[in-house]
Amino acid sequence: MRGYLVFLILSSIFLYYILHGILWRESSSWLRVIEMRRPPMMLSCSLKPAFESLLSYRGIYPFLCTSDLNAIAAFQESDKIALPYGVKKSVHYFQLALSRLQSCDLFPETDKVPCKKCIVVGNGAVLKNKTLGEKIDSYDVIIRINDGPVRGYEEDVGTKTTFRIFYPESVFTNPEDHDPDSVVILTVFKSYDLMWLGDLLDGNTPDISHFWKKPALNLIYKTEKIRILDPIITRIAAYDLLHFPTSFPKKEKPKHPTTGIIAITLAFYICHEVHLAGFKYNFTDKSGPLHYYGNTTMFMMSTNEYHNITAEQIFLKNIIEKNFVTDLTQD
Ligand SMILES: *[C@@H]1O[C@H](CO)[C@@H](O)[C@H](O)[C@H]1NC(C)=O
Ligand SMILES: *[C@@H]1O[C@H](CO)[C@@H](O)[C@H](O)[C@H]1NC(C)=O
Ligand SMILES: *[C@@H]1O[C@H](CO)[C@@H](O)[C@H](O)[C@H]1NC(C)=O
Ligand SMILES: *[C@@H]1O[C@H](CO)[C@@H](O)[C@H](O)[C@H]1NC(C)=O
């Protein structure tokens, strides 16, 4: 059985390259061969979005599913890369966490909008007093980041959330911030993140000794609303969009994309049109506010050792200037 499966996967890959080389130079579905249950998105969108030229892979499904975790990982070579950008040596933890979830659906079955117009709402202070709330709420898909609040900031950031991307140290813990309509997406950086999720879903107290900042000790979201992001999305953000090196000097902390850039990468794969708000920062004003909420200052951003903000600003400037995205808070 196992040998048969391996044979099937290998021959699928072989077939893919043959067909790709001969027939489908402009093929729109990279994973057509084994992703039967995941229909390619945007099939009925006639014009290809401009940002498509940035995407090195086509037809990536953004969430992990239990049924084909191994096959997809092998196909995308995520099984050759350790966390945070692959699943090597952590497949077991991924399986354990995924086995507790109930769905890996992207959109509800009732959703019939084929070409999605999306907005990624960053957490930047630039959103303050711009009263963009109503405009933001008008998009088909609204992607928010970490614990960027809606409650109390509705006029400036809107009320609706389709997706919220988080990690264990950044997820809401106050039930008042719960939105029953949101799907929340875990970005996994270490195997402890998966154990943390599994423990919370099982009602156990997670081991929090391996976190850089205290993670949430309760989950306000329903199991059926939780998804796990395929690390390939973060990998594409890091290597293809931000051009990070694959290894860093020993004395330096490896840089990873911020949740904001991961959210934009996700949007590129699930949307036909991508707009941004709240991604512009005033770097000369070190004592100015960083977010549209709370008291964190710009100084905190300039001292972050885990991200490369310069690379992210170059990327953002580039996609805005080339009109790959529209930025609602540019001026
Ligand atoms: C936003 O408006 C509030 C209330 O009108 C005001 O106190 C605050 O200073 C304004 N903030 C900015 C950044 O303009
Ligand atoms: C950025 O902050 C500096 C220092 O407070 C200020 O002089 C400048 O006008 C700000 N720039 C923008 C574009 O708001
Ligand atoms: C921000 O600072 C104000 C005034 O110092 C304080 O009242 C408020 O609680 C702080 N907010 C947060 C989220 O820390
Ligand atoms: C951050 O990215 C920029 C632009 O790619 C690069 O020049 C710089 O060396 C990077 N900095 C670090 C600390 O990795």
Write the layout of secondary structure elements.
Layout lengths: L1 H21 L46 H7 L15 H9 L17 E5 L11 H5 L3 E5 L8 H4 L5 E4 L16 E4 L4 H12 L23 E3 L2 H11 L17 H12 L2 E5 L20 H5 L6 H13 L4 E2 L4
Parallel strand pairs: 1-2, 1-6, 2-3, 3-4, 4-5, 6-7
Compact summary:
The protein is an alpha/beta fold and 331 residues long. Helices cover 30% and strands 8% of the residues. Strand 1, helix 4 (133-137) and strand 2 form a beta-alpha-beta unit.
Describe the structure.
This protein is of the alpha/beta class. It has a single domain (60-106, 115-327), classed as Glycosyl transferase family 29 (sialyltransferase cstii, chain A, Alpha-Beta Complex), CATH 3.90.1480.20. Helix content is 30%, strand content 8%. The protein has ten helices and seven strands. It has helices at 2-22, 69-75, 91-99, 133-137, 154-157, 191-202, 231-241, 259-270, 298-302, 309-321, and strands at residues 117-121, 141-145, 163-166, 183-186, 226-228, 273-277, 326-327. The chain has a seven-stranded parallel beta sheet with strand order 5-4-3-2-1-6-7, covered by helices on one side. Helix 4 (133-137) links the parallel strand 1 (117-121) and strand 2. The chain starts with a helix and ends with a strand. The model is unreliable at 14-37 (pLDDT under 50).
